């Protein structure tokens, strides 16, 4: 097994190959270059990125395949979450104080502002696949933070998969490409948001993705209150919810990322009910008081010894 | 890639929605997000419903989050699994707007793995983005 770690997209990246061959290290060495290239297209913090140009002009033709795919993924997320997870909240996010990369964010003395965009503004984004043209409605700017990392780990795993079973983790959004050579699974811990060095659960995956969304880390003081980065499109302010963190297993990390955000925005009971309706996902939530709740399919992926099936450790 | 001046953004809006893509290009039936009724085509292995035999206890409420303290001194929180309610009936998806032109690939629930007897050391940990 070989691995590489580095920072990109504002988070820690881990890429692993479940084989130790002559070309393993060479292939893994390419992963940072992939992420650096994607960041040039997708980052709202780089003034010359393709996304920043689109946000400044409101129009791109043709968009790169990278930006096009991630915008389409983001629009799919908006479609299937009925607008709860939408890429059109950049103005609200900056008004809440998240106007630079998180590592450089300083406490804000000023009270947070509320900036609203039109309801379901994502539906007014025009996309022409024949020319890869993207046209934004007036006043709408995009943030792809809810889609880019999940898309990137799915892409990276697909590129690594021909070289062996692979796992890519971007800040907790994780994709795996297949079982290890001896048939064993990828074990993935689920962190306790109240005790980050501790593990709530152990998940076993052979393929697919797992992602966690939470308001336990990306938060900052703004005026007299704490803000976090998960904007509720219904209020254009950081979501008020009983969910501290939500973790979802599914067919792809990008979809898991959006599903976890949806659960957090909906709240624990409606969020888990929403997840139960979708047969390709399983998930769990941690509430403010430490209570853990899980969907019915979550147990399929938990490690549990055969003599004590069903108990959470 | 063309980079029109900001004035062209206003002009572009004035030309209307003649570049919208029709919904005919969409293929929701292969969408990984599709709300599917359980069917043989899914090839989903039977789910083993497990019941916890442990006594269910509610953890005491925790104090509010301290400000600007990177590592709070929390007591260990006992964890209990609450069985989720039975899933509601499957709901059909709405007709998508025409700008979603690239449906995601068809997807299935990840396969249920065979668990080893001894808990393996995690390869990595999922958590909210660091």
Task: Write up what this structure looks like.
Chain A is α+β, with helices and mostly antiparallel strands and 313 residues long. Helices cover 27% and strands 27% of the residues of chain A. In chain A, a hairpin with a 2-residue loop joins strand 8 (186-192) and strand 9 (195-205). By secondary structure, chain B is low in regular secondary structure. Chain B is extended. At the A-B interface, strand 2, helix 2, strand 3, helix 3 and strand 4 of A face helix 1 and strand 1 of B.
What's the structural blueprint in terms of helices and strands?
The complex is a heterodimer of chains A (313) and B (130).
Chain A: E1 2-8, E2 11-17, H1 24-42, H2 50-57, E3 59-60, H3 65-80, H4 90-95, E4 126-128, E5 133-135, H5 148-160, E6 166-170, E7 173-176, E8 186-192, E9 195-205, E10 208-214, E11 219-222, E12 225-228, E13 231-232, E14 237-238, E15 243-250, H6 253-266, H7 268-276, E16 282-287, E17 292-294
Chain B: H1 6-14, E1 124-126
Give me a quick take on this structure.
The complex is a heterodimer of chains A (313) and B (130). Chain A has 313 residues and is an alpha+beta fold.
- Strands of the biggest beta sheet of chain A: in what spatial order? 1-2-6-7-10-15-16-17
Mean pLDDT over the residues of chain A: 90
Flag low-confidence runs of chain B.
1-31, 34-52, 66-93
Oligomerization state of this entry?
heterodimer
Q: What's the Cα radius of gyration of chain A?
A: 19 Å
Helix content of chain B: under 10%
The percentage of residues in β strands of chain B lies in under 5%
- Contiguous helical run count of chain B: 1
Question: What structural class is derived from the secondary structure elements of chain B?
Answer: little secondary structure
Order of helices and strands of chain B: HE
Q: Residue ranges of chain A: pLDDT <50 for 5 or more in a row? A: 307-313
Gross morphology of chain B is extended
Query: Overall 3D geometry of chain A?
Result: globular
The number of distinct helices of chain A, counting runs of at least 4 residues, comes to 7
